[in-house]
Structures are given as structure tokens and as C-alpha cells.
Specification:
By secondary structure, this protein is mainly α. It contains 15 helices and seven strands. A hairpin with a 6-residue loop joins strand 5 and strand 6.
Length: 362
């Protein structure tokens, strides 16, 4: 009897653990039928590990009891419903991506803003001071949202992600969530599948927020596109470690979305397909006659039909010869643009991070 005491204690602990697991899982409302066989296998495996192979009847009874608890409490399958977190406590990033994808499918106009959130959370990196970047999720703090380049994100993309964050809790960092949202949006809107890695750990307070002014601006120097705008782009992007080709490739994200007077002060979409990721930004930039818009807002360009716009830092890409050769290349070859953009965006999202793990999300 004394020799069996440890195994009895272990068995009792197993019962307590499985009771907690079944109660926890019963709170959810999706996937029980599909999940039940694998859960039963896990239960049986746990019992085997605790030496209960001598009592197959008791083992089978306990395993089936857990499943009965789940199904009996309303844990029934539902299409496209929330998916279970692994019992190990990790994050199912495919499930997170699916939740983000659902948000975009419901309203495709949210997609471009999620790309902007990921871009701006990453684009603060400084290779000299080794600070900034996506790694700490600081763009959620009001101090960073107050930066001029982030206007509007505190009322749109950041709160849009809160339900997803709440669902996965502390297992999912804001930093991983925001960067994953960017690559999911790009794919969902027709773009390439950008490689992504997980493992970012959030800062607990805003002390890690970098100074304002690290993001690229719409105009620099005199109003309108001129060499000062090219110099500005190189200053901003070179600080992060990007070359001219990567600057142009990343600028292709302007295929998505539009400017809002309530945020940046500028107005209008870059392309007629603002919820489709393609190379049209480069085609239009390279072929359309762009003239100054006559209005009371800041200096921007418009097409002859007055329905599209370009910023001074867009138009400088065809004024500067070193930039223009890449604009022309991407305008002619979308596949090359997708490949180069994917590499550059992946690099952008990982600037300044450490300990990341390549993660399958699509």
C-alpha cells in the first residue's frame, strides 16, 4: 500500500488538472466535436504518464468523462468560430490570423489601415541607437499615437485589434499582433504572403517610446516634390538600414488606402483600387500626368480626372533617377514587385528584434 501512495497522489492530481481543463474549455463554443478525439488521446496519454496503465477501465472512464463535460455544456462546433488555444499555453497564430482576416473580410477598408499600423509600429527603428522598431509594441501607448505620422490610428486600427488581443490574452503580445495584422492584410487584399516571425515581448510602460519624427513625411523642404524630398526619404530609410530599391519597394504599399483630411490633412486615394494590393501605384506614378491640386489643403498632386492623388514624396520617386529605375521596373513587373516588397516588409517588421521564431501563419 505504501508503494502505491505516490501513484494515487499523482492520479488525484491528474483528476484535478483534467477537471480544470474541462471546465476551462467548456467556456468556449466552437470545435468540440472535432477536438474531442485529440483531447481524449491527450487525456489518455496523461494518465499513462502517471502510471495508470494498470487500470484501463478507470483511464477510459476519465477520458470519456472529460469529453462528456465539454459536449454537455454546449461546447459544439460552429463554422468560422473562435478556435482553441493549444493546451500547452502557446498561441495558434493561424487562428489569430484567421480572426484578423475575418475583420478585413467584413470591412476591406480596414485592411490598409492595419498595414499602416504594422508599418508605423516598425518604422521607428534606428540602427545607430539600436532602439525603436516593432519589438516592444509601443505604438499602443498614447505617447506614440500622438506622433504626427500616427494620426488616426488611436481611433481606428489600435482599438480594432483589442477584441483579438482580449481573446488570446497575455499569450499574444501587442507587438506580435500588430505586425501579424500587417502581413495578414497584405495577403487578404491580394498581395504576397510575407514571412513573419513571433516572439516579440511588449514593453510594460511608455518609457521605450522613441522621439517623434522617425517616420517618413509627405513633404519636406519647399512645397512640392524636389530634391529635399528625396534626401528626406533617404535619411529616414537609411537610418533603418534600407537602400534605394527597398525604399521604392516599400513605397508600393501606397497601392492601398487613401489619405484623410482628418488625419494627415491630405485627401484622396493613390489608386482606383485602394483595397487591392497590386503594382498599380507604380504604373500610375510612371504614366499619368500629375499636376498641383488647387485647394485649401497642403500641397499635393492630382490626375487629370481629379480622382486620384500623389504626395510630394511619391512624385519625387520619378524625379530622382536612382529611384525612378525601380519605379519603372515595378510598373512593368508585378511579380518582381511582390517578391521585393515581401523581403523588405519582412525586414521592416523585424528591425531591432531579437529571439524571434519563424512562424507559419497562413
Amino acid at each position: 500500500a505504501l508503494q502505491r501512495t505516490p501513484r494515487k497522489n499523482s492520479f488525484n492530481k491528474t483528476i484535478m488538472l483534467l477537471t480544470k481543463v474541462s471546465t476551462y474549455l467548456a467556456l468556449f463554443s466552437a470545435g468540440a466535436a472535432a477536438f474531442a478525439p485529440s483531447l481524449s488521446t491527450r487525456v489518455t496519454s496523461v494518465l499513462d504518464a502517471h502510471g495508470q496503465d494498470d487500470d484501463g477501465g478507470r483511464r477510459a472512464f476519465l477520458a470519456s468523462s472529460v469529453i462528456t463535460t465539454l459536449v454537455g455544456t454546449g461546447f459544439t462546433p460552429a463554422a468560422h468560430a473562435w478556435r482553441l488555444l493549444p493546451l500547452s499555453g502557446g498561441v495558434d497564430y493561424k487562428a489569430v490570423a484567421g480572426d484578423i482576416s475575418s475583420i478585413i473580410k467584413e470591412d476591406p477598408n480596414k485592411g490598409p489601415t492595419l498595414v499602416r499600423l504594422a508599418w508605423h509600429s516598425s518604422g521607428t527603428y534606428d540602427k545607430m541607437s539600436k532602439d525603436g522598431g516593432s519589438g516592444l509594441g509601443t505604438i499602443r501607448f498614447k505617447e506614440e499615437l500622438a506622433h504626427g505620422g500616427n494620426a488616426g490610428l488611436g481611433e481606428t486600427a489600435v482599438p480594432w485589434m483589442e477584441d483579438v488581443k482580449t481573446k488570446y490574452g497575455d499569450s499574444l503580445s501587442y507587438a506580435d499582433l500588430y505586425t501579424l495584422a500587417g502581413v495578414v492584410a497584405i495577403k487578404e487584399l491580394g498581395g504576397p504572403t510575407v514571412p513573419w516571425s513571433s516572439g516579440r515581448v511588449d514593453a510594460l510602460d511608455p518609457s521605450a517610446v522613441t522621439p517623434d519624427g522617425r517616420l517618413p513625411g509627405a513633404d519636406s523642404g519647399p512645397p512640392g516634390a524636389d530634391p529635399s524630398d528625396a534626401a528626406h526619404l533617404r535619411t529616414i530609410f537609411n537610418r533603418m538600414g534600407f537602400n534605394d530599391q527597398e525604399i521604392v519597394a516599400l513605397s508600393g504599399a501606397h497601392a492601398l488606402g487613401r489619405c484623410h483630411t482628418t488625419a494627415s490633412g491630405y485627401d484622396g486615394p493613390w489608386t482606383p483600387t485602394p483595397t487591392m494590393f497590386n503594382n498599380l501605384y507604380f504604373s500610375l506614378l510612371d504614366s499619368v500626368k500629375w499636376t498641383q491640386r488647387d485647394w485649401k489643403g497642403p500641397f499635393q498632386y492630382e490626375d487629370e480626372g481629379k480622382s486620384l492623388m500623389m504626395l510630394p514624396t511619391d512624385l519625387v520617386l520619378i524625379q530622382d533617377d536612382d529611384f525612378k529605375k525601380y519605379v519603372s521596373m515595378y510598373a512593368k513587373d508585378q511579380a518582381t514587385f511582390f517578391a521585393d516588397f515581401s523581403k523588405a516588409f519582412n525586414k521592416l517588421e523585424e528591425l531591432g528584434t531579437t529571439g524571434l521564431k519563424s512562424t507559419t501563419w497562413a
